[in-house]
């Protein structure tokens, strides 16, 4: 199932909307995007409980080449993933229970965000003041039990390029 794509602000390519029908299509969208990720990328996954953040993250990690499957990091805050291709890491962070910058410091979030690894953040609103300006923010909206709308907004040169590449892949 190929997701439907609509670009906004085509001159800037700052926003892309994708609608998926089912968990498999959401995972597939993540795989497309995951294959494009490189060190230093920061992706913020925002949406209500059950919206599909972890399903998208599962696809992102799979497309990126993670050695092990992704699960929600809710009870451990951070899952660190590696891949065979190189020594790069992908950090999957659940910020839901982080209440302050001090909480974020205890899990090493600032180091993750300034490093050369990929960082996926669920519930990024909790740590928005710590986020780099250059990032990809993906808002997830539940349209019905099976349908999700993903709106990806890029800020910064790298993430604008990432968004352009994603639009090319999912057309």
Q: Please, could you describe this protein's structure?
A:
The chain is α/β, with parallel strands linked by helices and 171 residues long. The protein has a single domain (4-170), classed as Rossmann fold (3-Layer(aba) Sandwich). It contains 5 helices and 8 strands. It has helices at residues 23-34, 53-64, 101-106, 109-114, 157-170, and strands at 4-8, 15-21, 42-47, 78-82, 89-94, 118-122, 135-142, 147-155. Strands 1-2-8-7-3-6-5-4 form an 8-stranded mixed sheet. Strand 7 and strand 8 (147-155) form a beta hairpin. Helix 1 (23-34) packs across helix 2. The chain is globular, with a radius of gyration of 15 Å.
Distance between the termini: 12 Å
Q: Could you tell me the mean pLDDT?
A: 88
Helix-strand sequence: EEHEHEEHHEEEH
DSSP helical segment count:
5
Low-confidence runs of at least 5 consecutive residues: 4-13
CATH architecture: 3-Layer(aba) Sandwich
Helix/strand class: alpha/beta
Relevant terms:
Rossmann fold; 30% strand; 5 helices; 8-stranded mixed beta sheet; 171 residues; alpha/beta
Question: Layout of helices and strands, plus pairs?
Answer:
Elements: E1 4-8, E2 15-21, H1 23-34, E3 42-47, H2 53-64, E4 78-82, E5 89-94, H3 101-106, H4 109-114, E6 118-122, E7 135-142, E8 147-155, H5 157-170
Helix pairs in contact: 1-2
